[in-house]
Design a protein that fits this description.
single chain; 4-stranded antiparallel beta sheet; alpha+beta; elongated; about 15% strand; 5 helices; about 210 residues
């Protein structure tokens, strides 16, 4: 096989590899998107204040790290004499209360002081929770339709191998053409004759 033939086969093999990788990457991306829609989990962290951590799909409340789904959750601010509170109420009526001290406790040792929170930052965080809860409600409302669409897209992607098959067919055609090429047959015949001549002269047959 001459240099040009090797180059054409190498190019055809590279095309097959590239098409296979593109197909597999598309399928894997859609598989990840379907898995995320099936189980969104907590989602990315959006902020934290005191013992509360706000994620895209839920709030984590310390110290027990209780998980409060955002869908239907409502945060309500309550001003206290020494402690501000955020009441996080779930649709079923349950929920949690997060406390944010804003004045030092006179009974506490000054050396054991805790962080103090001003009213604005607690109110702002409550508003942020409510805003995220609204976005979660919208997300959940369209989740079934979105999941069905992604599953259909994934099925289509798995079946869509036309470009890959075309590349594989082209590679096979190149290999067949090179294998049956008259120039290749002539070169093999010349090589065989030269090896026979070498054997006649030396008594040893050279390696191919």
């Amino acid at each position: 096989m001459d240099k040009d033939q090797r180059q054409t086969e190498k190019k055809a093999a590279g095309h097959v590899k590239a098409e296979r990788e593109k197909h597999e990457q598309r399928v894997r991306r859609l598989e990840r998107e379907v898995a995320h829609l099936q189980d969104p989990g907590r989602g990315a962290e959006l902020g934290r204040l005191g013992g509360l951590v706000l994620h895209e799909h839920m709030v984590t409340a310390s110290p027990e790290a209780r998980l409060l789904p955002l869908n239907g959750l409502r945060a309500r601010f309550d001003r206290g004499d020494r402690v501000h509170s955020l009441y996080l109420t779930k649709p079923d009526g349950g929920g949690d209360r997060a406390k944010f001290p804003h004045s030092p406790d006179p009974a506490e040792d000054p050396e054991n002081s805790v962080r103090l929170f001003d009213e604005d930052e607690v109110r702002d965080f409550g508003m942020k929770i409510n805003e995220a809860a609204g976005q979660e409600k919208t997300f959940r409302a369209g989740l079934a339709e979105q999941l069905a669409g992604k599953r259909e897209e994934l099925d289509e992607a798995r079946k869509d191998t036309a470009r890959l098959k075309a590349a594989e067919q082209k590679q096979a055609d190149v290999s067949d053409r090179n294998r049956t090429c008259p120039r290749r047959k002539e070169a093999l015949a010349e090589l065989t004759a030269a090896r026979n001549q070498w054997q006649d002269l030396t008594g040893r047959r050279p390696p191919r």
